[in-house]
Sequence to fold (108 residues):
Amino acid sequence: MSITLPEPVVAFFAAANRDDADALSLCFVDGAVVRDEGRRIKGIAAIKRWHSEAKKKYHHTLEPVDSVERDGKIVVIGKVSGSFPNSPVNLEHIFGLRGGRIASLEIR
Fold:
């Protein structure tokens, strides 16, 4: 399935799959917030650490399989495969965009 996503979202998935924390951090605005696994991660440096720690822990890849717009945000269903129980799983990646970059990301 081919889906059309905004450029910062495309860049996020590409950088995450390449395990490129520097490129991934360029997708976010200063002060961006990520919510994942009950944690709130704020700021570029913290987001880079979060990404690196998650990659080391789960060795995961992300595949966008569907998307919708909901409440002004882009909701991407991503198939997440890695070294964790019940892999692969489909998770919502809810992106809030501002000025051509990601201002918020919630994964659930």
Remarks:
- The mean pLDDT is 96.
- Residues 7-107 form a domain with the Nuclear Transport Factor 2; Chain: A, fold (CATH 3.10.450.50).
